[in-house]
Amino acid sequence: MKKIRTESGNWINASYKSGMYEQWQKKAKINRNVINENDDDGDGDGENQQRQKRSMKMSSRRKPKQQSGVNKRGPKRELKTKDEIFKQRNRLERIQTHQKKKQRQRIAGHKKGGKGKR
């Protein structure tokens, strides 16, 4: 029995080869040589023109890429003012005290021995 190799590399019996693609190609009247000849003419058939118009529309819809390192708001300042430093330190201190308070509450809740929230 004759065997053929599939695209995936497996060997199957030749009786499984159906020729469906070739049949479809004939019905659809698609010939690769005819398509290649049209591309070489350079007269620009309607399909290529439509494709170019569509690609132009899509490219105009795209957002322009930002330049690297430049933000919409401008470059970030490297030096902070006294007020900015003071506010940042206060904010961190408030966050830390809040976290410590919550931690103490959790520890106190565990010492009671109750089920509590889990």
Automatic annotation (TrEMBL):
Annotated Gene Ontology cellular component terms: nucleus
Organism per entry: Euroglyphus maynei
UniProt feature, compositional bias: Basic and acidic residues: 76-96
Region feature Disordered, mapped onto this chain: 32-118
Composition bias, Acidic residues: 37-46
Keyword Nucleotide-binding in record: yes
Annotated ranges, domain DBP10 C-terminal: 2-27
Record keywords: ATP-binding, Helicase, Hydrolase, Nucleotide-binding
Segments of skewed composition (Basic residues): 51-65, 97-118
Protein name, entry field: ATP-dependent RNA helicase DDX54-like protein
Pfam families: DBP10CT
GO molecular function: ATP binding; RNA binding; RNA helicase activity
